[in-house]
Design a protein that fits this description.
Protein name: RidA family protein
Oligomer: single chain
InterPro entries: Endoribo_LPSP/chorism_mut-like (IPR013813), RutC-like_sf (IPR035959)
Pfam families: YjgF_endoribonc (PF14588)
Low-confidence stretches: none
Strand content: 25-35%
Order of helices and strands: HEEHEHEE
Mean pLDDT: 96
Number of helices: 3
Shape: globular
Largest sheet: 5 strands, mixed
Radius of gyration: 15 Å
Structural class: alpha+beta
Organism: Comamonas nitrativorans
């Protein structure tokens, strides 16, 4: 099944490439690797999904926020691939920053929202190395920010 068949089966429509909010570019390619800048959690209406895990945001809501980021990341990755996600050879690495209270320890479970969706969409090509960190704050108060590295053909 192609990536696009899988996205359709999951009823996912990828967003267009977002305009950066500061002094950076959405992605950089060097050789066959594409580095995607961090994407913050946004709700379906485009507003920032704000709050701290362990405070105002539950682990399950954080997981859903991370899943939403995965959709945004795939939209950016599609642009980096010249419009064809079937060029993705491998999702190499995901790094997740989780806006957390000092006692919150479930960053890995939050990040599963992104990792699981990448696995569903890309199959074995979506299996990746990963880091998940708890941080004191993220731009605009977002609950999660995730960046991604992929290898493309």
């Amino acid at each position: 099944m192609s990536v696009y068949d899988q996205l359709q089966a999951l009823n996912i429509t990828l967003p267009p490439l977002a305009v950066p909010a500061a002094a950076y570019v959405p992605f950089v390619q060097t050789g066959n690797l594409v580095f995607l800048s961090g994407h913050i959690a946004r709700k379906a209406d485009g507003t920032v999904w704000a709050g701290q895990l362990g405070g105002q945001v539950s682990t399950e809501d954080g997981k859903q926020a991370a899943r939403a980021i995965a959709v945004d990341l795939m939209g950016t990755l599609q642009a980096a691939c010249g419009g064809d996600l079937n060029r993705v050879k491998r999702i190499v690495k995901v790094m997740s920053l989780v806006n957390s209270t000092p006692t919150f320890t479930e960053q890995h479970l939050v990040t599963n929202g992104c990792s699981e969706l990448l696995g569903e969409v890309f199959g074995d090509k979506g299996k990746h190395a990963r880091s998940a960190f708890g941080v004191a704050q993220i731009p605009l108060g977002a609950c999660v920010e995730i960046e991604l590295i992929a290898e493309i053909e």
